[in-house]
Design brief:
Blueprint (H helix, E strand, L loop, with lengths): L2 E2 L1 H5 L5 E3 L2 E3 L6 H11 L6 E6 L2 E8 L2 E6 L4 E7 L4
Length: about 80
């Protein structure tokens, strides 16, 4: 089971028109994030670890999806598209 912080889960939101500004969701599915964690863990160089305020965070990169997680991938902090793939 994975826990998703609100911002990470929010990337799935579609575009909305809030007043006069258009807010675009990044349209990345939870499955894409989950796959990035599982598959990137098996690819050399596809993960990186850093400490943020004393907490270890790992980034998992698969194709154009990058996921930042804590607790060995159990708590998803953020998910984003990278590059132009």
């Amino acid at each position: 089971m994975q826990l998703w912080v609100e911002e990470a889960a929010g990337v799935r939101m579609p575009q909305t028109n809030a007043g006069s500004s258009l807010q675009a969701g990044r349209d990345i599915t939870i499955n894409a994030g989950h796959d990035a964690i599982l598959q990137a863990a098996e690819v050399a160089g596809a993960t990186a670890t850093t400490n943020v305020n004393g907490v270890q965070r790992t980034s998992y990169t698969l194709g154009n999806v990058r996921v930042w997680a804590e607790d060995g991938g159990k708590t998803i902090i953020t998910i984003l598209r990278i590059g132009s793939q």
